[in-house]
Design a protein that fits this description.
The chain is an alpha/beta fold. The protein has a single domain, classed as Isochorismatase-like (Rossmann fold), CATH 3.40.50.850. The protein is 39% helix and 23% strand. It contains 6 helices and 6 strands, in the order βααββαβαβαβα. Helix 5 links the parallel strand 5 and strand 6. Helix 2 packs parallel to helix 6. The radius of gyration is 14 Å and the shape is globular.
Length: 163
């Protein structure tokens, strides 16, 4: 198993639209996973959604990731225009180059881009796993639903597996 951590669409523009409490728990879990992956020298991928019509573009404040997240410029950064982060991006080729076969998914919006990317990973014969507690949505029931229908792992189990 060669894992990578995917942090999907945890951007300031989405925080403005939704209540900050939606993100609080997810940010804590994502930062814990970032720290774990850094300590193990594993790949971290920051995925950001772009939308020209809504002026959600690199260089705009809304495009930036949340200030509370411990993402670094040295992490892989993917800019996407579709829900599925694999669609018309370099994500698949970069993961192949690194021989990554397992993805730990986190981020926003559970029932949207996270679920689309999860399904996209399965279509590419990768093993996607959602980190419990690391998803955000303006509808908490959607987080529970996405966790219920997909493979998940707790932070404690992930820490043990990565040794």
């Amino acid at each position: 198993m060669k894992p990578a951590l995917l942090i999907i669409d945890m951007q300031k523009d989405f925080l403005k639209k939704d209540n900050k409490s939606v993100y609080t728990e997810a940010v804590e879990y994502i930062n814990a996973a970032i720290q774990l992956f850094r300590a193990k020298g594993l790949t971290i991928v920051c995925i950001q959604h772009m939308n020209e019509r809504e002026k959600l573009l690199p260089g705009t404040e809304g495009f930036d990731v949340l200030d509370d997240l411990n993402i670094l410029p040295a992490d892989i950064h993917i800019h996407k225009t579709y829900g599925n982060a694999f669609n018309k991006t370099l994500l698949q080729s970069q993961l192949q180059e690194l021989k990554v076969d397992t993805l730990i998914l986190t981020g926003y919006q559970a029932e949207g881009c996270v679920l689309s990317t999860y399904r996209g990973a399965k279509d590419l014969d990768l093993t996607p796993i959602i980190l419990r507690g690391s998803l955000a949505s303006e509808t908490p029931e959607h987080v529970k639903f996405v966790e219920a229908i997909n493979d998940i792992i707790s932070y404690g189990a992930l820490k043990k597996v990565l040794g």
